[in-house]
Amino acid sequence: MAQRTINWFKYSSPASxxxxxxxxxxxxxxxxxVLTAVGLYLGFFVAPTDYKQGExxxxxxxxxxxxxxxxxIYLVMAVYAGMGLVFNTRLSSLMASALAPTGxxxxxxALWTGSLWGKPMWGTWWVWDARLTSELILLFLYIGxxxxxxxxxxxxxxxRASGLLxxxxxxxxxxxxKSVEWWNTLHQGASITVSSGTSxxxxxxxxxxxxxxxxxxxxxxxxxxxxxxxxxxxERDTEWVAAELGKRR
Amino acid sequence: xNWGSAGDFFAMGGYAFxxxxxxxxxxxxxxxxxxxxLMRKRTITQRLGRRIRMRSEVNNxxxx
Lengths: 249, 64
Fold this sequence. Notes:
The complex is a heterodimer.
Chain A: H1 14-46, H2 60-87, H3 90-122, H4 130-151, H5 155-169, H6 172-182, E1 192-193, E2 197-198, H7 202-234, H8 239-246
Antiparallel strand pairs in A: 1-2
Helix pairs in contact in A: 1-7, 2-3, 2-5, 2-7, 3-4, 3-7, 4-5, 4-6
Chain B: H1 6-11, H2 16-63
């Protein structure tokens, strides 16, 4: 059987992932800039005024993508942490560390923009309802993950302890997602669902998707840059790092 | 087109504070994150580069 084997594990080694990430970053960064420009144009100049919420609803074009990112990044982080625990691959825990600050940032932005939307629409900056509270817990999980990792000196033990925290905390993500169905909350239900499609005007939906893609590309570019820093620090005594950094003076 | 004038645009139908507060802080946070991560990259490359050059000089002297 002449079967060409692709070594999928090749890029799980930091030494080969580092240059690959370096090559990919400019593309993701460029896509992020272009998609943001298109998204902002659509969001402010093409999408019509909402008949109920007036112009205030335009906050949704960053609130919803930020909230999606906050949850998705957490899941990706938990998967990497899990792979690190199970397979003991070096790159996994570095990826988890690189994802956490960006995830925390999007969680903060989801809360911040939600609050600025809530004041004029609900009449309050904050309520302790299920959706808002579970999203706040997500922010604390990110902060806890980063602090725990920073607090333990031995990198392997730090990765194991924080990885466990990341995996246990992942239970919060479906709780956030389903909170509007499970509890009677002030937060509205999802406007876009897998089962019943969307209840939104077409240009509004397009804008939301373009902005989500923009945030995606942004997150990938930033996380890849950060993981390269993590890789350099973790592998600083290796031959390949010496060769990599020694060549440019 | 949604806006009659630039003033209209910035007024956001009375939601200026909330809309610009959301977009402004989001843009600021994302820019700061980019700057921080690029600064971290520069610091690490410089520090490790110095370390590596120092070591190779020590090795060279030991050999002579």
